[in-house]
Amino acid sequence: MRRGFLLRLGLVVVVGLAGCQAPVGPEVAARNEVIRGEPAGDYWIGRRVAVERTRFWGYVRRPRQPWAQAQLVVLNERERLAPDRLPETPGGGGRAFQYDHNREYRMRGYLSGRQVYDPNSDKILPEFVLQDIEEVHARPGWLFHPREKRDVFGVPQPPR
Q1: Is residue 147 part of a domain?
Q2: Total Cβ atoms within 10 A of residue 7
Q3: Domain count, the chain
Q4: Within a domain: residue 31?
């Protein structure tokens, strides 16, 4: 009796976990195919993710690597400042910190191996030392899935 219950419980857990995995739809597969065609090189692709009151920068990935494998990082700007290194409240109607949410960049730099704590998101994240940055898309669209919605207080997560 107990063994039958445990088997049924295990089956429910396995089926439940399988249901949590986001399916890769045709839009994701098509974009991943475009990503596989990116030129190889010693650079990173970065996607800015601006979330209220947080200090992480966004996601970075290597060329030809899908966004589902990207890492959420904190930037170390000792060598180069990020484009949005501006006041948090704009003066005179100009741009302000985090104006570049969801823009895509070509970046040079490296993961330092250090972990950085962002107290506002309560996350420990890898540090990316920024050496150079160039905007490549002002409106690249969705990050992980075509139906994701912007939540100014939530961090978009890659599918598991």
Answers
A1: no
A2: 10
A3: 1
A4: yes
